[in-house]
Amino acid sequence: EVDLPQDKTADQFLADLCHQNLTRYYPQTTSEIKQRLDYELEVIKQTQFANYFLVVWDIITYSKEHGILFGVRGSAAASIVLHCLGITEVDPLENKLVFERFLNLERKEMPDIDLDFEDARRDEVIAYVSQKYGQDHVAQIITFGTLGARAALRDVGRALGMAYSDVDRVAKLVPFRPGITLERALEENSELRAIYEDDKIIRNLVDSARKLEGSARHASTHAAGVVIAKESLTNYVPLQRVSKGNGEGGVMTQFTMEDIARIGLLKMDFLGLANLTILGKAREIIGQNCGVDIDLHKIPMDDAKTFDLLSSGETMGVFQLEGAGMRRYIKELKPNTFSDIAAMIALYRPGPMEHIPTFIKAKHGLEPIRYPHPALASILEETYGVIVYQDQVLFIVQTFAGYSLGQADIFRKAMGKKIAAVMKKEKRNFVSGAKKLGYSADVTDEVFALIEPFAGYAFNKAHSFSYALIAYQTAYLKANYPAEYITAFLVTHTDQLEKVATAVAECRRLGINVLPPDVNRSQVSFSIETDGEGNPAIRFGLNAIKNVGVGAVEPLVAERQKGDQFKSIEDLCRRVDLRSMNRRAMESLIKAGALDRLGDRGTLLQNIGRILALAQREQHLKETGQSTMFDLWGEEVSAPLPNLNLPPADITTKEKLGWERELMGVYLSEHPFSAFAGKAAAGNAFLCGHIDAELVGQTIPVAGMVASVHNSFTRDRRPFASAVLEDLDGRLEVMVWPKVYADTRDLWQEGNILLVEGKVRMRDDQVQLSCDNVRRYELEPFSPEEPAVVKEPETPPPQRHRLVISLSQTSDAASDTAHLNKLFDILRRFPGEDEVNLCVINGEKIINLKLSNIYTNYCPELHQRLVEFMGEEGLKVETNG
Questions:
Q1: Are 259 and 169 in contact (CB under 8 A)?
Q2: Angstrom distance (rounded) from CA 815 to CA 100
Q3: What would you measure as the largest C-alpha separation in the chain, in angstroms?
């Protein structure tokens, strides 16, 4: 319970709050508005949920006072009470939202007010709730991770002491999709079934895994669930400490979300939403960079730039609208009203999606708007004759069968369960009600058939409008402050290299300059600078470099901001305490180019040991109070720095670019494809970023660089590959099926520049190219008749090596797995064409394995890494031509 005035009940206090705020949200207060408010307050009073509403109001009040952005999901936005409390932003009356979908007297269920908060600040809200209502009254809710088919096989295989490769081979035969079971995998995959029947060891593995499949494997906190109780929670439910690393010091229930609801406790959803974090960060950056304090609740809802951006399909980073399929549809829709955005969010789901083309054509007058019956025109007018929302189902049931809206919601929920007996009963009631209102049997059957599927999968309108509001806000900031918005996006997703790469590609499309990391210019995270032409540019943050944490670079940035820029590597070593920066972090800074102003990358990397030694010596001098005679003069005389005299070491452009891609997810100094972009245009080849759904079915030539390759096998064990081509504008997945792959396998190596001819197709809303022909990129026009061959190099092929790595298996499976994964990580850092063989020693048994999915580039640096990792005795290098 919240703290109430002494002379007020919870119902009275809630009513007072709403009436006090009514004129703020409805300056022109009509009798209809007052009537709706009084009606909702009466329903809340009769259902005894006033305290629940007040608790939510209290939490949101705290969030507002502390500048934490929030949003509401689900049907709660249909309540004028919540709107008057400042909890929901969407006006339920203006947008015809049905309160009964949220709470009604006929359906005696707990209402759900599901809240979204900035994901970076969700813990603040939970901490406040715990402090406000008592640590023993608040807990997060437990959830259990269960063993899936593949995980069960791997866990059982480890327990049985089987070789990793044997278990892995079986696990990979299980189709990779949600909900797959070993039973179904055996039915679907003939190869899995064959080895199961032929091999007793494999049969034992699978049978044992089937017994464990679906068992709880581990416990963690639910992504959103929080429970609050009037008395100590231990009176109702067992609790346990949250495991270390997942919120140390907190508690969680030992009952799941469903059981918490079943015993009558108040469960609430506090979900962390990254897009709210982006909005909050964008406002902060816009305020700093542009001097504009944006109130997201007062932005114009008819902004032309925003709707132009949505219509262009440039919706990367826009909430709910950035998937490839959604971008295609939003581009076709060309929304010009807020309700268009809400409708598209509701339609873009399995089931309703089939109606999107009808919706778009009707909006643009390419098809007439059709209503199943004239009585439905007013209900479906807003959505061009298409049923989009659950609310429309309720209105149709009310209009045709005379149900109250509360009864209509019970009807919708029952229909959604798809239970034959229930549906039969509900149809009888519907037909009976329609007959009383004078509708013919044929029309009634037609309308019932129309609403039947939508009852189960349509969105409720309040949820769509609430999410559409966040979508519009993100689109507004991106359209009007693109550099600041994308900077906020990058700050929020700093540790996700794939999202960083996507955002940098978006900057290239929008003409925003992205500047490389620089110890003399970069902040800890991404920041805004002005480029040479006075335009805003985005500077890469130092902690956005892989292996470099915030703690490692904060002292560096702080020292630079106190004094001048670093003049040399020696100057940096003297001024900055580098004890929080390990060798790996320093290597990563050098490789990413952050120290380019202080020396050549190759030279700094080659001499990193001497650099760190100097930094340690300088820090030791400071700590021990040792001084030179120059220090006696204070700052009037600069003490001479020791000169490291670093011997130079060269690196190739290919190495430099490879490091950038590995550590930042993008090429910043230059793109390997840059030199070919002009040639591609001249040769009429398509660029990856220019291929969209309009080209589906066409056979086209595409130029690009191989960014990654994933090798796999068909069901009949023939090898094929899924490769990603990239250029300056974007990326494209290319499927290389067995027939083509057999003749061109050597071409599909990371870093190769290729010209691929194939047919454009759609798969899972993503554009793909199915490869027919491929060759190394050349300026000459590409001819489809040319055979898919590799052009012979003019120089002799390089000498190949075979690395033989010996490992000893121990009794600690987890440790062995971690050791093996670390080895693979080292090898993958040096991609190339040299073979890798493993020699696994298991007691007296020796197993020799060839790593078919890992090829490396043997070089002195790789040799050194491997020796440091396992010693000279564990590595043997053979020359094989």
A1: no
A2: 56
A3: 106
Who's near 250: CB < 8 A, 6+ residues apart? 126, 139, 140, 221, 241, 242
pTM for the full predicted model: 0.76
Phi-psi region of 147 (alpha: psi -120 to 50; beta: other; left: phi over 0): beta
- Cα 825 from chain centroid? 23
Main-chain dihedrals φ then ψ at residue 576, nearest 5 degrees: -110, 135
pLDDT above 70 as % of the chain: 90
Looking at 743-853, which runs of residues are DSSP E strands?
753-763, 766-776, 801-808, 831-842, 845-850
| Tokens encoding 130 | 């715990």
Q: Which helix (H) or strand (E) holds 174?
A: none
What pLDDT is attached to residue 639?
Answer: 47
Q: In terms of C-beta distances under 8 Å and separation of at least 24 residues, what long-range contacts does 327-330 make, across chains too?
A: 328/692, 328/693, 328/765, 329/356, 329/360
DSSP of 67-126? T--EEEEGGGGG-HHHHHTTS--S-TTTTT--GGGT--SSS------EEEEETTTHHHHH
Of the chain, the end-to-end C-alpha distance in Å amounts to 79
Per DSSP bridges, beta strands 251-253 and 831-842 are unpaired
Closest CA to 548 of 509, 515, 517: 517
Instruction: Give one DSSP letter per residue of 387-436, joined into a string.
Output: --BHHHHHHHHHHHH---HHHHHHHHHHHHTT-HHHHHHHHHHHHHHHHH
* Residues 216-233, mean pLDDT to the nearest whole number: 80
Angle between helices 390-401 and 420-436 (to 10 degrees): 50
The H or E element containing residue 157 is helix 149-159
Write phi, then psi, for 613 (nearest 5 degrees): -65, -40
Please report, for residues 245, 260, 369, 415, 463, the alpha-carbon distance to residue 453 in angstroms, rounded to integers and kept in the order given. 44, 31, 20, 8, 19
Q: Which two tokens stand for residue 680?
A: 């591609």
236: Cα within 13 Å, side-chain hemisphere: 22
- Strand, coil or helix: what is 782? coil
Least confident of 28-37, 417-426, 830-839: 417-426
